[in-house]
Amino acid sequence: MTVPKVDLIDGAAMPQLGFGVFQVGDDEAERAVATALEHGYRSIDTASAYRNEEGVGRALRASGLPRDELFVTTKLWNSEQGHDNALRACEASLSRLGLDRIDLYLIHWPMPGRGLYLETWRALEKLKSDGRVRSIGVSNFTVDTLRHLLEETDVVPVVNQIELHPYFQQDGLRAFHRDHGIHTEAWAPLGQGHGLLDDPALARIAEAHGRTPAQVVLRWHLDIGNIVIPKSVTPSRIAENIDVFGFQLTPDDLRTIGEMDKGIRVGPDPAVFESD
Ligand code: NAD
What we know:
Layout: E1 5-7, E2 13-15, E3 19-20, H1 26-38, E4 43-45, H2 53-63, E5 71-76, H3 83-97, E6 102-107, H4 117-129, E7 133-139, H5 143-152, E8 159-163, H6 171-180, E9 183-187, H7 200-209, H8 213-223, E10 227-228, H9 235-242, H10 251-258
Parallel strand pairs: 3-4, 4-5, 5-6, 6-7, 7-8, 8-9, 9-10
Antiparallel strand pairs: 1-2
Helix pairs in contact: 1-2, 2-3, 3-4, 7-8
The structure holds nicotinamide-adenine-dinucleotide.
Nicotinamide-adenine-dinucleotide binds at residues 20-22, 45, 108, 139-140, 161, 187-193, 197, 214, 229-232, 237, 240-241, 267.
Protein name: Aldo/keto reductase
Organism: Actinomadura meyerae
Keywords: NADP, Oxidoreductase
């Protein structure tokens, strides 16, 4: 299975579908990433907060795949914000991953109340110019925090990784991204499995295509231009979630899913979320 790539605004290319490892322990992440790589995933999304960068790194090395075929994202945690903290955090992630370069480094949450994301971003700009990371981006930024970042700093984030699924479609933020050349990357693309995948409308579309609701949801993300990073530790689901390139949704299917937005988040509201 070869996953198409999207061209990022800084000239790099990123697989449109990757593999997430949130809430997966270090050894389990190693096994899950190994399985994902066998099934053709080449982009892995971890974070220092997930405490599994070492397991991810072990799986990457054991795969024997050339480094330039792999795309590794990790994220700087809230307690690592601030200029010098961010520089140290990146070195620590590189060392846990066993890499000499991260493909995409993200600020995990903006925490606007702390007022540190601009100086943190300037540290990421330095990491990029020093070659420690290839591309830099953000996660959980709102229109307000993104606009502020664009006004005050030099490098445009290549992605904003945000909660996005059919029950929480984020049309306003997606339009803002489009206007600024930022790619939308969807976390919880399957709504973390709760409820969404039992939706009767999705079941009907899935049945019509001989596919599963998860595959229909992932196909919808790809069709509307999102980058997706579904997570599973179950080998059959890992295989199922990348097998989404052999069918097409109809305009009616896309309209039906487009009308499913309930404005329901599964995660915290980034305008107010703060945590160490
Ligand atoms: P997800 O939407 O990928 O859902 C994962 C869950 O859905 C699994 O645990 C499983 O219960 C279920 N599932 C997966 N495949 C399935 C299938 N084929 N059929 C039925 N059920 C299935 O949620 P997520 O893990 O929260 O998000 C994906 C990735 O996004 C994470 O692993 C992580 O890398 C990233 N993420 C980032 C942030 C952030 O703040 N930036 C927050 C959460 C997650």
